[in-house]
Amino acid sequence: MKNVKDSLGIYFYKFTAMQLKSKILILGAIITLLALTAIQGYLIYNTYELKKSAFTIDARNAIAVIYGQKQVDSLMWDYRNDFLKQLESYKKGQITKPQVLENLKEKVEPINVLFNDFYNEEIKKNNLKADIKCKIIVTQIQIVDSLGLKTDFVQKDNNIFLLGENFDSTEAILINNSTWQQDHDFINEGNPDAFGLNFKTSIYMNILNWKQNVLKVMAGLLFISVLLFIFVLSLLYYSIYNLLKQKKLAEIKTDFINNITHELKTPLSTLAIATKTLTNRFAQDDKAIAEDTIKTINRQNRRLQNIVDEFLSNSVSSEDIKLNEEEFFPYNFLNNLVEDFKMSSATDIEFIKNIEKNEVSILADKFYLGTALLNILNNAVKYGGKKIEFTYIFDKESRLHIIYIKDNGIGMSSKYKKQIFEKFYRISEKDRHNYKGLGLGLYYSNQIIKVHKGELSVKSKIKEGSTFIIKIPTQQP
Ligand code: ADP
């Protein structure tokens, strides 16, 4: 036994080391994926910014080329000459400041039609695949007379629109600022007069669908990135899923080894003592001791046989269960089953039977169905049930035979209500170490109910007890 213990110790040590390793592995993989995602996101963002600025530079260059053309120059001078005349009139006191600006706007209006026509024609030639608008606004108009006196017509905070399309400046990109500076001489009431002009303008552009354009250019890259991301994520998911599955299997294996050693330990050590007694000369001479010891050997032998039998018979899956079905009314069958069980159980256990007598038949294998119900009844007693309620009804609406086996034993947390039907699964909580078993009973019962096209479930509460519910459909029309 010591050897088994030692090898188990090594096994557990390896197992916990493996658990730690798999945790580190999962964490490492998740961190790597997050880092890769962040790097990829950063690269995509950078590419986006790069494409955006390349696109903006292209658009800016195209506009600069248009503005550099002599047609635009001559359109500018068209209003500029007139504007100087307006300023002369202002200096002569013939018009007011607002009138100067009003006249400028009036003069520019027909020029703007020509300007826009020219601009639209030219911008098309660049084939930029985006709607690029541009405008010129006046940010300052100031004149300085010969005495250095300054007069402002337009200041920074009250810009006026001059040429192009009048879009909102907040979402526009500033292309450049330029200043038209001019010293202008004229004759004022017969005397020479002069003023210096500061006429500052800003050119703005607005690319209406640049985001779509940049994204269109990046579509291939984005698509491959998303695809790769999904691929890596699925790979990671699959690996983690497999790792957890392996981990669970390893856990089940450990539990099983643990349980079976525990189960075999008592009969094996009793057999060892019995053999020792028989080999003892004194015992050989004493018939009573010898007979007693042989009885013990037989008992322990039977116990070992039962454990092996339980393992062999209860570990088969639903595919290996070959039913020998017959059609019968459940009343007598269930009544006898509960009565027989009652007889074999301790007397301090109270049984309550509610078995409905009806004319609805069930198609089932009596041996297997009986085994499934007895496993559940045995558990009800094993896990502390002192009062066991066995109820059977036929539900007309769902056409199901329903059996409830209720106990007032130790119960269980609802988080285990699926796992307890898995092969070798045992709830390994601290207060359950004294309950022996291999974790096969409910697995086997569930397999049996499944081959009867039925369903086995549980409702339970810790310290209050459990109710196992078996539902089997009737074949009767
Ligand atoms: P075993 O009883 O050999 O452990 P089972 O498959 O019969 O295996 O049961 C699986 C687990 O479900 C048990 O380990 C036990 O913790 C829990 N269980 C089963 N029946 C009951 C019950 N009536 N009350 C409380 N817990 C139960």
From TrEMBL:
Any coiled-coil regions, as ranges: 287-314
Enzyme class: transferase
Its EC number(s): 2.7.13.3
Residue ranges occupied by any Histidine kinase domain in the UniProt entry: 259-476
Lineage top rank: taxon: Bacteria
GO molecular function annotation: phosphorelay sensor kinase activity
Catalytic activity entry: ATP + protein L-histidine = ADP + protein N-phospho-L-histidine
Transmembrane segments: 24-45, 214-238
InterPro entries hit by this protein: HATPase_C_sf, HATPase_dom, His_kinase_dom, HisK_dim/P_dom, HisK_dim/P_sf, Sensor_HK_Regulatory, Sig_transdc_His_kin-like_C
Keyword Transferase recorded: yes
PROSITE patterns, per database record: HIS_KIN
Protein name, entry field: histidine kinase
Species this protein is from: Formosa algae
